[in-house]
Design goal:
With 383 residues, this protein is of the alpha+beta class. Helix content is 49%, strand content 8%. The chain has a single domain (12-374), classed as Cytochrome P450 (Cytochrome p450, Orthogonal Bundle). The protein has 15 helices and nine strands. Strands 1-2-7-4-3 form a five-stranded mixed beta sheet, with helices on one face. It has a two-stranded antiparallel sheet with strand order 5-6. The chain has a two-stranded antiparallel ribbon with strand order 8-9. The longest helix is centred in the middle third of the chain and has 31 residues, at 215-245. The mean pLDDT is 95. Bound molecules: protoporphyrin IX containing FE. Protoporphyrin IX containing FE binds next to helix 4, helix 10 and helix 14.
Length: 383
């Protein structure tokens, strides 16, 4: 079969069947490349990605548009505006550490066991639906939702995350706002129902900020679900693809469930779910020797940086037991993902549950998959 044409640009690369040779060429070019059509600078080398993500002259949102105009003044806009992911400076410094400490304190074995139990209670087909539902249900469970609410929360979350994408229609944004309002109300109830269940993530957040039922805290609890949703669905789906197409991988893993964790870790490097993130220039600065001015935007191509040979030897090779694996797919610097360990635990449990349920990987390969339209997340939809 003829190989597909190269991606048209760095956004099309996210959902391209194999963007990695194109990413390698991008990385081997100038350290920052301006795309006239997208009006974006692209950074793809590991060293430059780290420089961009650590630069204090850049912001996570355009300085003149803290909340996207399309949702400003709506419940979705309220949640968006409070998220640590979408703020710099004082609000970020105040609200990130409690979340980070709560996530760092999770018992991975207990999370894994809870995720397996949740996966067993979900329909295993269509596979792509389970990839979405299982991680969100597991985090909703950790956040104190009752079992009979988990699928409801997943539906709200799938609606809510539409407000994070510039590709969404007016009706999707309307649904996102309704979901945001419903989730805020539910979290308000959960937080007021003291005390939260023993070892839950909600209890850990509450221990960090006792008695805090503020709108910011509630919004950031919603944020834990939204940060989980698409990115972990992509990691789980891309792990199934690796099992299908990496030669000898299934044989190597065999029935050793403990190897599913390194599988997912290597997928997060080799074929990650989050391909890029953005930064916006707030003050004149110089990056990789290039002067940038307020109004400029930089696309940080994490998926290209993940395969930079300066991070790992033989970066294009899928190595299950790679020694001292380094990656940038979970970001870097002040906004780096605090949920990496949780995400990888959930994805490994998801693969384990699907295999235990008899998922036929060859059939998955034969039927094929497409990638969901997205400007930054690579999520397979199995046919
Ligand atoms: C495979 C799954 C995941 C991937 C690939 C991923 C990736 C990322 C990346 C790249 C960032 C930084 C974005 C930037 O700097 O612009 C980020 C931020 C964040 N992630 Fe994750 N993430 C995943 C799952 C999770 C999970 C499960 C949670 C928690 C339940 C989580 C919580 C967060 C939070 C709160 C932030 C914002 C941190 C801040 O701005 O200080 N993530 N994630």
């Amino acid at each position: 079969m003829k190989p597909p044409a190269s991606p048209a640009d760095v956004i099309a690369a996210v959902t391209h069947p194999n963007p990695y040779p194109w990413y390698a060429a991008l990385r081997n070019g100038p350290p920052l490349v301006f795309d006239e059509h997208l009006r974006l600078w692209a950074a793809s080398r590991a060293e430059v990605v780290c420089e961009v993500l650590a630069c204090e002259a850049l912001r996570v949102r355009p300085p003149a548009e803290a909340v996207p105009r399309a949702i400003a003044g709506t419940p979705a806009g309220e949640v968006f505006g409070h998220l640590v992911r979408m703020n710099d400076g004082a609000p970020h410094v105040a609200h990130r550490p409690p979340l980070q400490r709560a996530l760092a304190g999770l018992d991975r074995q207990a999370v894994h066991a809870a995720a397996l139990k949740i996966a067993a209670g979900l329909p295993a087909a269509p596979v792509s639906d389970l990839c979405f539902a299982m991680p969100v249900c597991a985090v909703a469970h950790l956040l104190g939702f009752a079992d009979d609410m988990l699928l409801r929360v997943t539906d709200w979350m799938r609606d809510f995350v539409a407000c994070l994408s510039a590709l969404s229609s007016a009706s999707q944004l309307q649904a996102a706002s309704e979901a945001a309002a419903a989730l805020m109300m539910r979290f308000e109830q959960l937080v007021s129902d003291q005390p939260a269940a023993g070892a839950s993530l909600l209890a850990a957040v509450q221990a960090e900020v006792p008695g805090d039922g503020s709108r910011v805290t509630l919004a950031n609890l919603v944020g834990l679900l939204s940060q989980t949703c698409e990115a972990t669905a992509g990691l789980l789906g891309n792990s199934l693809i690796a099992l299908a197409r990496e030669p000898g991988l299934r044989r190597k893993i065999g029935s050793r469930a403990e190897l599913l964790q390194p599988l997912v870790d290597e997928v997060a490097r080799h074929d990650p779910s989050v391909h890029n993130t953005r930064r916006f220039v707030a003050e004149p600065t110089v990056l990789a020797g290039m002067p940038l001015a307020p109004g400029d935007a930089v696309l940080v191509v994490l998926a290209a940086a993940n395969r930079d040979p300066s991070l790992n030897p033989a970066p294009a090779t899928f190595e299950l037991l790679r020694a001292e694996r380094r990656m940038l797919g979970f970001g870097h610097g002040p906004h780096a993902c605090p949920g990496q360990a949780l995400a990888c635990t959930l994805a490994a449990a998801g693969v384990q549950a699907l295999l235990a349920d008899g998922l036929d990987i060859d059939m998955l390969m034969d039927r094929g998959w497409d990638y969901r339209p997205s400007a930054n997340v690579r999520i397979p939809v199995f046919r």
